[in-house]
Design goal:
The structure is a single chain. This protein is α+β, with helices and mostly antiparallel strands and 138 residues long. It has a single domain, classed as K homology (KH) domain (GMP Synthetase, Chain A, domain 3, 2-Layer Sandwich), CATH 3.30.300.20. It is built from 3 helices and 3 strands; from the N terminus they run H-E-E-H-E-H. It has a 3-stranded mixed sheet, with helices on both faces. The radius of gyration is 25 Å and the shape is elongated. The chain starts with 6 loop residues before the first helix and ends in a 17-residue tail after the last helix.
């Protein structure tokens, strides 16, 4: 029998959407430039939710974490008004370094490509390795 998404996964996705919406409304007051909710994991018994986020400006990471930790109770209360759950999970916020790591990987790939292009561009016509012609031995 094919297994679809479990209830806790559907609830996690709904929490992710609602928290993103709430943060979009509330972040203006916190003066944090851009905060993105990247994922949400909810325990099977729906008692805890771990919300992963990233910030555009890495210098704002600590301030964002402090603000989110302080606003967790308020956000949980707002979730209770928006969602029909018997009990709303306790919220914890975790910085998601995957976007930062992705940017670092992209920078490394770009650097290797530049080196590759510089290396290929440095060959002169006489420096290029020649391929033996058909029937010739090298």
């Amino acid at each position: 029998m094919a297994q679809g998404f479990g209830r806790h996964q559907r609830v996690a996705e709904q929490i992710r959407r609602e928290i993103a919406d709430l943060l979009r409304e509330e972040m203006r007051q916190a003066a944090i430039s851009l905060l993105t909710v990247t994922d949400c994991e909810v325990t099977r018994d729906l008692s805890y939710a771990k919300i992963f986020y990233s910030v555009l400006n890495i210098d704002e990471r600590d301030r964002a974490q402090a603000w989110l930790d302080g606003a967790a109770g308020f956000l949980r209360t707002e979730l209770a008004h928006r969602m029909r759950l018997r009990s709303v999970p306790r919220l914890s916020f975790v910085f998601d370094p995957s976007i930062e790591r992705g940017m670092q990987m992209d920078a490394l790939i770009s650097a290797v490509r530049r080196q590759d292009d510089a290396h290929e561009g440095g060959f002169e016509a006489s420096d290029e390795p020649t391929q033996p012609k058909a029937g010739e031995r090298s």
